[in-house]
Design goal:
Elements lengths: L7 H13 L2 H7 L1 H4 L1 H4 L10 E2 L2 E2 L9 H29 L1 H22 L8 H31 L4 H30 L1 H33 L2 H9 L11 H15 L2 H14 L5 H8 L1 H20 L2 H21 L4 H19 L3 H4 L5 H27 L10 H31 L8 H17 L22
Antiparallel strand pairs: 1-2
């Protein structure tokens, strides 16, 4: 009789709780973007007046634009350092170690960040909030690696892009709800309790970690693969990084340059919309900035299904970068409604995420997926951290009492354009190298993956070495033995 783990529904149950791992942490990540005016607002507003429904002085934490962008930069830098070690440890010690540790760090970091907001006007505020973001970044970036590793194990050779798309959709659901609800909560309960609400949502991720780790352990045991995976994990060495292919490094650079134009823009998008376009209050500006995530939420699953059946991941990567260029051009040099640009950016982001990240398990050995994901996330976060600092320098160091000049915003958008052009260059090189090495990324993957899955699952059960593809890369085991 077939074990539950061998049936299709089991891996989708795993996927559901796996998706919930990062729902709360993604809600927390962009809370400063929605509350940027409050973070950069004055410590007091004794003579504030209201003009057309908008106060000429916003009471807040008194941060400068540089200090505000540092909240995002330290998150990115922490990821850049921690995720490398985290990926290696996950490969060595397993998924269950990772989900418990990193989901707990998310809870701890978000709680310390909320606690720091209570020290407004004191010397403790910035150190506490930066430490909170540091711990939160240590957990959230690494937790995403575990999430991707679990997804890659249970869905490799099946609905891989769909599974990655759904995990992204759940994460972006947290981001979308943040842009819709955070401002309302702040108006009613104040900043401090709003930030504590985000910390409580991170507890949901910790609860999900308990469930998904149990399902993962039971499932591997029922499939008879737990011992095999543990044996392969013991063989993982840090020196294995040297064996990662040129395709992998070009794919990582493509991801880094693409995200350099997404996250730093979203971090300042609400302020940008209020400064450049007339008639947008903070709440409406936050909704428009959040349209990037709205589009991603709606499209992620369907885009994942499309890419699972069509393949052509490398071509999609190039197309996403090329189609993103007009977005920053419109924002920099025209007064076209900003909602057009943010929705457009959300569409290209959806295709990029569904084509780029699921490509990593296709070009690295199964046993080193965690390490490979960690390195990819590290370089991505190094790029984002540097980009956040550059944006902070471009926008200036004064408080946000007045509008930032348009020419400064234009320089920021030109910087986003430069990153997108770099993404085009690396993605074109990726396709050239991939074509010379067999065209794995641009194959119609559905049927070929099925054949690989059946043969390698049989080999694993016989205790044989994991097979290799045409480049000598290990082909990952399948969780479904009798499908």
């Amino acid at each position: 009789m077939a074990q539950p783990a061998e049936k299709d529904y089991y891996r989708f149950v795993v996927l559901f709780f796996n998706c919930l791992l990062t729902f709360g942490s993604y809600f927390c990540f962009d809370m400063p973007s929605v509350l940027q005016n409050q973070f950069q607002g004055n410590l007091t507003c004794p003579n504030a007046t209201v003009i057309n429904g908008t106060a000429d002085c916003v009471e807040g934490l008194g941060m400068t634009p540089q200090e505000y962008n540092l909240l995002y930069a330290i998150y990115a830098w922490t990821n850049a350092v921690v995720v490398i070690l985290a990926g290696f440890l996950i490969d060595k010690l397993g998924n269950r170690f990772g989900v418990f540790l990193f989901s707990f760090l998310c809870v701890l970091g978000s709680s310390l960040f909320a606690l720091g907001s209570h020290f407004k006007g004191s010397a403790y505020l910035l150190p506490l909030m930066l430490t909170g973001r540091l711990l939160f970044g240590s957990g959230n970036g690494s937790l995403t690696i575990v999430q991707n590793r679990i997804t890659a194990f249970w869905f490799k050779g099946k609905e891989l892009a769909l599974a990655f798309g759904l995990t992204l959709a759940f994460s972006r659901l947290g981001s979308v709800l943040n842009f819709f609800l955070t401002q309302r909560f702040e108006e009613r309960f104040g900043m401090q309790w709003t930030l504590w609400g985000g910390a409580i949502l991170c507890v949901l991720g910790f609860t999900s970690a308990i469930v998904v780790s149990s399902l993962d352990k039971v499932g591997m045991r029922q499939l008879g693969l737990e011992g095999v995976i543990q044996e392969e994990s013991r063989k993982v060495r840090i020196q294995d990084v040297k064996q990662l292919s040129l395709r992998y490094w070009l794919l990582v650079l493509t991801i880094m340059f693409f995200y350099n134009g997404i996250f730093p823009f979203i971090a300042d998008a609400s302020k940008f919309i209020q400064d450049k376009y007339d008639g947008y209050a903070q709440k409406e500006a936050a909704y428009i900035a959040g349209a990037v995530y709205d589009s991603s939420l709606v499209l992620s699953a369907s885009v994942g299904i499309l890419i699972d059946y069509v393949g052509l991941r490398g071509i999609f990567a190039v197309s996403c970068a090329v189609l993103t260029l007009p977005v920053f051009g419109l924002l920099a040099f025209t007064f076209v409604a900003p909602l057009v640009s943010t929705i457009w950016l959300g569409v290209t982001y959806s295709f990029a995420a569904a084509s780029m990240w699921p490509s990593i398990p296709l070009v690295v050995p199964q046993a080193t997926i965690g390490t490979a994901m960690g390195l990819a996330t590290s370089l991505q976060m190094i790029g984002i951290g540097i980009a956040n600092l550059v944006v902070g320098q471009i926008l200036g160091t004064k408080t946000s009492d007045t509008k930032i000049p348009l020419w400064r915003w234009q320089r920021m958008m030109v910087f986003m354009l430069a990153n997108t052009i770099a993404c085009i260059v690396t993605s074109v090189l990726l396709n050239i190298v991939d074509h010379r090495q067999g065209g794995t990324l641009n194959k119609l993957t559905k049927r070929s993956a099925q054949a690989e899955r059946e043969s390698d699952a049989a080999s694993l059960l016989r205790g044989e070495e994991v097979g290799s593809d045409d480049e000598g890369e290990a082909v990952p085991p399948s969780p479904s033995v009798n499908s």
